[in-house]
Request: fold
Amino acid sequence: MKVAVLSSGGKDSSAAIWWAQCKGWEVSHLVTMIVEGEDSWMFQIPGTQLVQHQAELCGCEWLPVATQGEPEKEVDDLKAALSKLEIDGIVSGALRSDYQKTRLERMSEELGIKSFTPLWHQSSKSHMSNLVANGFKVMITGVSTEGLDSEWLGCVLDEESLQDLTRIASKYRFHVDGEGGEYETLVVAGPHMIGELEIDYVKHWDGVRGHLSFQ
Reply:
């Protein structure tokens, strides 16, 4: 099986890469949607340029796909890019977004390939615990919810910080996996990569929300 993985560089797509590798499949490409507009209903925006370096450490090619992030049109942009690849399927890290999952499945059917969502409806707590236990270095790159302040920006999750995050998520009633957009992540190392990303960043904080910009 030869597949491409839809990757933003974050924890969910990184787990999807590892899943495909563990299946013994050939991961030929990491496909990243580069959102040039202000927002996207489907795809992450911060830190996506760094997927190029992740792809190198995964031993595969990087395919950036420019999009304005317009609803439905962004799926057409992805479809056009995938149509040029010789692959059997696309793997994504979708957890609970029916909007994303159904559109990827419809697109894949039109292309004559398979759509795989190995993380679909995984427990938030077990998903996060498994990432830390299996050596994924998950850096928080953006926060936008009550309970998460500037100190979380740049934090690489370990057992202790994950316990703190779990406690805060319970108190402020959000999913600990950040599926509601409460925070964004970048994976700097893990079992799916040989080596580790070396990055420099600057924190941006407005008193309510913040993000990292990468040098």
Q: What stands out?
A: The mean pLDDT is 93. Residues 2-116 form a domain with the Rossmann fold fold (CATH 3.40.50.620).
